[in-house]
Known about the structure:
Layout: H1 2-14, E1 18-22, E2 28-31, H2 33-39, H3 43-46, H4 60-71, E3 77-85, E4 91-102, E5 108-117, H5 118-154, H6 159-173, E6 175-183, E7 190-196, H7 200-206, H8 214-218, E8 226-228, E9 250-257, E10 260-270, H9 278-285, H10 288-349, H11 353-381, H12 384-406, E11 410-415, H13 424-445, E12 449-457, E13 466-473, H14 486-501, E14 505-510, E15 516-523, H15 529-535
Helix pairs in contact: 5-6, 5-10, 6-9, 6-10, 10-11, 10-14, 12-13, 13-14
Amino acid sequence: MTDEADQHQATFEQAAVGIAHLDLDGCWLRVNRRLCAILAYAEAEILTKTCLEITYPEDRELEQQDFRRVLTEETEAYSRQKRFVCGDGRVVWVNQTVSLVRDDAGEPDYLLALLSDVIERRESDERLRPLEKQERDHAVVLDTANQVALDVLSRLTGVEALRHIAIAARTLAGARYAALGVARLDGQGLSEFVTVGLTPDEQAQMGHSPEGLGVLGHLLHRREPLRIDSLASHPSSVGFPPRHPSMESFLGVPICRGEAVVGALYLTNKEDGSAFTEADELAVQALGAHAAVAINSLEMLARQRDLMRGLIAAQEDERRAVAYDLHDGLTQYVMASYAHLEAFRRAWAGGKMDRAERELDQGLCYLKDAVAESRRLVNGLRSLVLDDLGLAGALEQHLGEEKERAGWEEAEFVHNVAGRRFDQTLETAVYRVAQEALTNARKHAAASHVRLLLLLAEDGPKGAPRLTLEVRDWGRGFVLEEVASDAVRVGLHSMAERVGLLNGFYQLVTAPGAGTTLRAYFPIPQITPETKKEASHV
Length: 538
């Protein structure tokens, strides 16, 4: 029994909570060290007092009611938060549980009280709260990253990913309103502006999206976040348009890709009415990399849409060009041949042999021209000679053919790419532009001297390599704005489209009596194993 008593005593004294025995009148009979520490009393001193005596005055009535409920056996125990007046004069909140202990005969013997310090628990909760918020914020960022990835993979409009970023930023910062703005490529204003938090009525009243003036634009020229207690007080503020929702506190976080600012997150009106904090700033910054990915996806989709429009336009121009060539070339030769052969038939039937022979010769001559024109058109649709001879060889052969057809006295070809192969798309584009320019010179320039120039040099932006194509004639020239022929307009537009689709630069210089010069600059794409294979397939 002695060992059990010793263990019981040790448990009583070393417990992490305050433990006390009270008589049925509420006097302290026995207390452990933890209770003395909580209430700031020495053991000898507290044993001279009653529990009710050191209870905070406003809590005494409830304490007496709970005592009576236990003593009248209405309940076996009770628990509540209450206040004690400590030995040092402080008022301390505790969780108190009191239960009735009976003797061997089942009669009430004494009261067992357990006390724990509420302040310690509150301090523990306060320490845990930031950790819990970090965990929630981390979950929001991860969920947003997953959603952005899904949006990018789904390849819809690109705006969906931006909206998910804005929603996450609003959640992390506890903001009433949030927006994500995408900077224009020239850095002057916004090309896209996605908002969350606005009601449909507020959205309708605002009208068109902001252009990136004031504080919105200011943020596109800095890499550090910006916190403002009153948005209207900032020097860059330009105010709000009519019927715009009231906005006070502000947090702006630039979105960077490398050294460039590609957009920004804008948050206004903290939900609890306070100012945005550094913790809000850090939480929103965690979305930066994901926002940059979303903006990059949006820009890629925009470029792809532009490319698709360009391809469609180029295809339509090609179809028109083929139609004009068929009408102005092949169809004319065939119709002329038909007319002369029909005249041959009538002359032969009438016994006019001399005339019949002349008509037959002329008809066969036009048929020969039709065959040559049809070959030219087929070659225009797909240049097999380009595959066989490479860019320089194909251009040299084509220039010779055009010289013979046009009767030019001189046709120069100057180049420094003998034996060089390039990306197949680039070779095709250069060949087609040169082909169209030489065709225009043959049909419209009335020139006797033409020069074709093709040079490879590292004279592009930042010393990047590029191909320069120049087709010049010393013919009659023209006023560009006064071009009347649909065929010529389509041809010029087709050349510009081809150059633009490869991110090149196109220039046309002409004037009446001064001839025409076309220059096109093509950047050299980076060689990859796939493009190398394509370029060396012959």
